[in-house]
């Protein structure tokens, strides 16, 4: 593609009349497809799609740059310098931002929108090496320099206005045209009619489809900007959320002391419980041992008593002789008889 | 009006008087670097004025094409 472009340009240099028109129309048709999307993307300042756009555009840039530089080198070197000194008032409008090093080679659409610069970084900003460092990047101007009839910059009209009024430049154009025609500097041949018809078609196309193409391009640009803005907003929202969370964590950290107090209380309670449990255990054990001793002593006393009683009974019963037994029985009988007589006497009395 | 005398070659073209034109031309930088930087400057000026805007018109590119066609016809 690149060599083809160079080849076409070289040929074009050699044949002025036919091929200049053909090449111009070729450029127009071939690159008109690129116009709507290309002009937007190459002017878009996207900080997040930096590298992607850069890589996409590098190829196009090289092609256009070679073609443009070959075209402009011999002519612009002369004109550029003069132009640089002529339009002094326009030179300080925009800083040299070195956004892209290519000249647009396609033309279609009356309006094309550039990037909206607020907060977005240019694609090749990182390559900027001049001492100027403008951050944040200033937004792009809304409209370009005024151009009348699409090809005459407004400055010419302003230049001639003081001397010749409003119709000055038109009279100049007419005069030049008639001069070139009459002196046969411009020869009318078949190419003239071809040029006229091509011009008519171009003008008709631009007038008819210009606004719609411009609106479409604007819409594309808006979408891109909206996407980038959305990314930015999302990032800002997440960062703000992170700040909120951090504050909340700090607030939580303030409650640390209360947490530690509660934990201290818990531990103290555990210790207290443990201590009391052991106290209880100690008292219980001691009481048990003392009860045992008490029971032991009681047992001793009881056993001694019973043993003594048994022994006394046994000895008493053993000491009762049979003689004593008879005497005691006889005594008992006499006592009983007396008693019986007493009760009988009492009963009848 | 002028704060200090400026050497001729540093003036802009519109400020150069007609008699100084020769010395002005003689003092300009014609090294390849100078030529390329001049081309660069011209390109940047044109680009920033007509193309690198939010709502460009057809003028920016149309002027280039028409100028190219005219130049190639005349030269």
From TrEMBL, chain B:
Write out the GO biological process terms. Answer: proton motive force-driven mitochondrial ATP synthesis
Q: Where in the cell is it found?
A: Mitochondrion membrane
Transmembrane residue ranges? 56-74
Q: Which UniProt keywords apply?
A: ATP synthesis, CF(0), Hydrogen ion transport, Ion transport, Membrane, Mitochondrion, Transmembrane, Transmembrane helix, Transport
Q: Which terms in the Gene Ontology molecular function aspect does this entry carry?
A: proton-transporting ATP synthase activity, rotational mechanism
| Entry annotated with the keyword Transmembrane | yes
Keyword Membrane on entry:
yes
Please classify the protein's predominant subcellular localization into one broad category: mitochondrion
Give the top-rank taxon of the lineage listed in the UniProt record for this protein: Eukaryota
Looking up InterPro entries in the UniProt record yields: F1F0-ATPsyn_F_prd
Record GO cellular component, one term: proton-transporting ATP synthase complex
The record's similarity note reads: Belongs to the ATPase F chain family.
This protein is called what? Mitochondrial ATP synthase subunit f
What is the native source organism of this protein?
Perca flavescens (American yellow perch)
């Amino acid at each position: 593609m690149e060599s083809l472009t160079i080849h076409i340009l070289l040929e074009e240099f050699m044949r002025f009349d036919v091929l200049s028109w053909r090449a111009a129309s070729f450029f127009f048709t071939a690159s008109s497809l690129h116009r709507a999307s290309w002009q937007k993307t190459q002017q878009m300042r996207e900080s997040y799609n930096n590298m992607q756009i850069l890589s996409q555009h590098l190829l196009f840039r090289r092609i256009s740059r070679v073609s443009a530089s070959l075209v402009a080198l011999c002519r612009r070197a002369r004109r550029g310098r003069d132009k640089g000194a002529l339009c002094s008032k326009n030179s300080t409008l925009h800083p040299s931002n070195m956004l892209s090093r290519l000249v647009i080679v396609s033309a279609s659409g009356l309006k094309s929108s550039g990037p909206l610069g607020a907060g977005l970084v240019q694609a090749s900003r990182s390559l900027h090496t001049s001492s100027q460092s403008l951050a944040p990047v200033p937004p792009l101007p809304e409209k370009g320099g005024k151009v009348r009839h699409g090809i005459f910059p407004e400055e010419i009209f302003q230049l001639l206005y003081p001397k010749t009024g409003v119709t000055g430049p038109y009279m100049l154009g007419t005069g030049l045209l008639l001069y070139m025609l009459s002196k046969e500097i411009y020869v009318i041949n078949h190419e003239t009619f071809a040029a006229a018809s091509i011009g008519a078609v171009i003008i008709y196309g631009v007038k008819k489809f210009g606004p719609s193409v411009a609106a479409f391009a604007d819409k594309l640009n808006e979408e891109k900007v909206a996407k980038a803005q959305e990314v930015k907003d999302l990032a800002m929202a997440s960062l703000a959320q992170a700040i909120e969370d951090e504050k909340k964590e700090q607030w939580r950290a303030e409650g640390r002391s209360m947490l530690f107090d509660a934990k201290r209380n818990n531990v103290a309670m555990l210790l207290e419980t443990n201590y009391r449990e052991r106290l209880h255990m100690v008292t219980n054990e001691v009481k048990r041992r003392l009860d045992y001793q008490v029971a032991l002593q009681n047992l001793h006393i009881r056993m001694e008593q019973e043993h003594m009683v048994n022994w006394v009974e046994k000895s008493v019963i053993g000491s009762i002789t049979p003689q004593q037994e008879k005497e005691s029985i006889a005594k008992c009988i006499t006592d009983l008889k007396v008693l019986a007589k007493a009760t009988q006497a009492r009963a009848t009395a | 009006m002028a704060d200090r005398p400026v050497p001729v070659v540093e003036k802009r073209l519109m400020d150069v008087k007609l008699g100084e034109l020769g010395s002005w031309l003689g003092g300009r930088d014609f090294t390849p670097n100078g030529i390329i930087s001049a081309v660069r400057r011209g390109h940047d000026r044109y680009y920033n004025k007509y193309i690198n805007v939010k709502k460009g018109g057809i003028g920016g590119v149309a002027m280039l094409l028409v100028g190219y066609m005219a130049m190639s016809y005349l030269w």
